[in-house]
Specification:
Elements (H helix, E strand, L loop, with lengths): L3 E3 L2 E5 L3 H16 L14 E7 L5 E10 L14 E2 L10 E9 L6 H18 L3 E9 L7 H10 L9 E2 L4 E2 L11 H7 L2 H8 L3 E2 L3 E4 L4 E9 L5 H11 L1
Parallel strand pairs: 6-7
Antiparallel strand pairs: 1-2, 2-3, 3-4, 4-6, 5-8, 7-12, 9-11, 10-12, 11-12
Length: 243
Amino acid sequence: MRVFGKGRYRARRAETQHDIEATQRLRHLAFRNCEGIDTDRFDEICHHIMVEEVKSGLLVACYRFMPLAGGDEIGQSYSAQFYDLLALQSFPGPMVEIGRFCLQPGLHDPDILRVAWGALTRFVDQEGVELLFGCSSFPGTRPEAHSDAFAWIRDRHLAPERWQPRVKAPEVFRFSTQPRRKPDARRALLAMPPLLRTYLGMGGWVSDHAVIDTGMNTLHVFTALEVKSVPAARARALRAVAG
């Protein structure tokens, strides 16, 4: 992947151990709200993407991704630790797991997300990827703090039954079985992680439960997007960024 930019930002693949450590430091800051290094065994087998401010070189966002040839390889993914993904083993096309997506705390420029997705779009088109998936994380482990968001996705964005992930983790919140309530749309959307909002805006779907991950101090939902479901106008916009 060559370096490319949009306005103030550029995206590139991490090439050195120093680059990867920079992404791990940002991940720790974003997910744990303190200095440190966030690392696990998947770092060695993933590609790492860095989004930087052109002028200063500041790392403003990062994520990693793992290409898989098809559903029969999904058991190798990070997500498979937490979700029973047996249904997706029959998915026929190439797929990519996206993980550890995070932004520099305090930055909210939408161009950062555009460049991050532009880099991924380029890879998706080059490799013929048909499914994107990963875990979308809400901060903290108290489901009630995100009740509007969970009610919103339960009503509008549950996975098709044929692909629905099943429970595997020991601690989960089954928001699909909670008493129905009308969510506050504004609070629901504001509470959603940026990656999840982007997935859902393109036709993505989620698991019917959230995993309570005390190690990462998050609640996360399995999230996936079939590339063929992306609206034509949105696909054109992404490809315009990707060049």
